[in-house]
């Protein structure tokens, strides 16, 4: 082979280098100017949900600082598959983002037989938003007042005590499955269409137990309609201070729901960095932190690398958990 044939002339080399420099300069200018038009924030859950409230709260602050609208686009359906698939196929220009609860990214790939996105291959991690405090509650008619009493009763009555969830594969289902495995008990799962109907089933006495967001459970705990046995999900210091953490009893049984921001794969590092910085500022602002405390969620933030590590670790945990349950949805 004649190597000289493939050598580039000096003028050609200079032209190539200048082209690369200009391209990088242009990319940097675009990132500095970003956003120059409204940004669509896809939320694969329904309007009015906790995720919806949190997303609007954070991005209203980001919108103020960046001077462009961040428009929340609710795309519920199929456990979040519809919204996530739309974002995975969107142009990687920074003008389509997704706020996903953890189940969309780390449960769906193992739960559903057909998933048209890969959480690692198709998305760029931008920032963690929050972790969500949960609480294990029981119906007072069950006759237990502590977690130890609940576990002892469940062991004495295997597959006789019922627990509600927000549906098959919902985080409220998986966290109770993990708890059962670690506590060595067997309960009967009763799925409902979301956490709110599951809570209503608890209050009406249809089921015995439920692990659900503290914000949803708090008024019913205060009224005495349900009893709180243990809390999970990195609870804030003032979130039900009289209720012990689940990790005090079962260190490996804590299942931490989270909500985070992702972009389509290929979005520039400059845009990801800019979004991460602005989201971090929003999460650190006193008014946002106060509102989040009222919602019983914990602002987290962190780097894209932090979110990537959490994503990969949780994928491994949920792969094994879903497999152990033997659950598969069409």
Task: Write up what this structure looks like.
The chain has helices at 10-33, 50-66, 81-88, 102-106, 108-111, 147-156, 171-183, 195-204, 214-223, 269-284, 286-294, 304-325; strands at 39-43, 70-74, 96-101, 123-132, 134-138, 162-165, 188-191, 209-213, 227-232, 258-264, 297-299. The chain is an alpha/beta fold and 330 residues long. The strands form 2 sheets. The protein has a 6-stranded mixed β-sheet, with helices on both faces. A 5-stranded mixed β-sheet has the order 7-6-8-5-9, with helices on both faces. Helix 7 links the parallel strand 6 (162-165) and strand 7 (188-191). It starts with 9 loop residues before the first helix and ends in a 5-residue tail after the last helix.
């Amino acid at each position: 082979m004649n190597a000289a044939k493939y050598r580039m002339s000096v003028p050609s080399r200079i032209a190539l280098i200048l082209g690369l420099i200009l391209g990088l300069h242009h990319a940097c200018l675009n990132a500095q100017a970003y956003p120059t038009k409204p940004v669509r924030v896809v939320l694969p859950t329904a309007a009015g949900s906790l995720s919806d409230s949190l997303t609007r709260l954070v991005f209203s602050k980001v919108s103020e600082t960046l001077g462009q609208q961040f428009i929340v686009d609710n795309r519920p359906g199929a456990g979040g598959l519809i919204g996530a698939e739309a974002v995975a196929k969107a142009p990687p220009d920074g003008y389509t983002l997704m706020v996903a609860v953890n189940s969309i990214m780390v449960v769906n790939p193992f739960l559903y037989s057909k998933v048209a996105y890969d959480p690692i291959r198709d998305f760029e991690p931008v920032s963690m938003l929050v972790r969500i405090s949960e609480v294990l509650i029981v119906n007072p008619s069950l006759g237990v007042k502590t977690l130890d009493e609940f576990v002892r009763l469940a062991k004495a009555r295997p597959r006789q005590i019922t627990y509600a969830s927000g549906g098959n594969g919902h985080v409220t289902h998986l966290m109770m499955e993990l708890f059962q495995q670690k506590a060595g008990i067997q309960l009967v799962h009763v799925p409902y269409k979301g956490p709110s109907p599951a809570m209503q089933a608890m209050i009406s006495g249809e089921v015995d137990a439920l692990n659900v967001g503290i914000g949803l459970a708090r008024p019913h705990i205060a009224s005495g309609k349900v009893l709180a046995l243990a809390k999970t999900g990195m609870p804030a210091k003032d979130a039900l201070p009289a209720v012990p953490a689940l990790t005090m009893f079962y260190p490996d049984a804590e299942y931490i729901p989270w909500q985070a921001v992702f972009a389509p794969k290929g979005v520039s590092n400059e845009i990801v960095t800019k979004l991460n910085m602005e989201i971090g500022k929003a999460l650190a602002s006193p008014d946002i932190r106060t509102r989040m405390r009222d919602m019983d969620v914990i602002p987290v933030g962190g780097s894209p690398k932090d979110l990537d590590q959490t994503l990969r670790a949780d994928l491994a945990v949920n792969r094994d958990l879903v497999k152990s349950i033997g659950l598969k949805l069409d």
